[in-house]
Amino acid sequence: GNEGLDADVLLCWGRRPGDSWNAPTTGPGGFGSNTGASSLTMGSRSYGDGEHGCFVQADGIVSCWGDNSAGQLGRTGVASDLTEEPVDLEIGSSQTVVAGGNFTCALGEDGVELTCWGTLANCLESDSQSIETRTVHATEMGWSAFGGMAAGSSHVCAWSAAGEVACWGKNHKFQCGYNSGDLTCDPQLVD
Q1: Is residue 189 within 8 Å of residue 165, measured between CB atoms?
Q2: CB 55 within 8 A of CB 33
Q3: CA nearest 35: which of 26, 22, 43, 46?
Q4: Which of 29, 37, 38, 142 could hold 10 in an S-S bridge, CB 3.0 to 4.6 Å?
Q5: Rounded distance, CA 166 to CA 15, Å?
Q6: Of 30, 113, 110, which Cα lies nearest the Cα of 65?
Q7: What is the Cα–Cα distance from 170 to 156, expressed in whole angstroms?
Q8: Is the pTM of this model over 0.90?
Q9: How many C-beta atoms surround the C-beta of residue 4 within 10 A?
Q10: Contact between 107 and 114 (Cβ < 8 Å)
Q11: What is the pLDDT of residues 147-184, one digit of tens each?
Q12: Within 10 Å of residue 63's Cβ, how many Cβ atoms?
């Protein structure tokens, strides 16, 4: 059961970066001290990418750990491409975060800006020393705000409160919902 679990403690277990395994723990660097953690997300592992995780703290700060080889942690100057300790991002206050294979996206607290970093199917050119970001504004789709977002291994989709959907990234299996091209770096409305 879940007896004794503190709602404000983030527990992690499984394979750590570098192929070591661990049992449930509050993690190195005090994962357990991050009170009010929400919107936990893990990068999807496919074709050797992924292996990073992020969460939003109660104050809206996004923290990430794991593989940073493609800049998916959103920080330069991380001591190595792998970090087991969460690093706080300097992107402003966020309400939710999603992780894909080699990228991460956060929805701003006001719900009108969605910012992504990492590679996102080569739409962004990032690595652990140089981070490129792309911010999409809800008004680009004619929306007043985003209703939410989701990430696949190499694409991201966002939706409005009215249920309209826009996707971008790799589309080689038509995962973006339209039948044109293998890659789009700009959000495309799904009919």
Answers
A1: yes
A2: no
A3: 26
A4: 37
A5: 33
A6: 30
A7: 9
A8: no
A9: 5
A10: yes
A11: 999 999 889 999 998 999 999 998 888 888 888 778 88
A12: 22
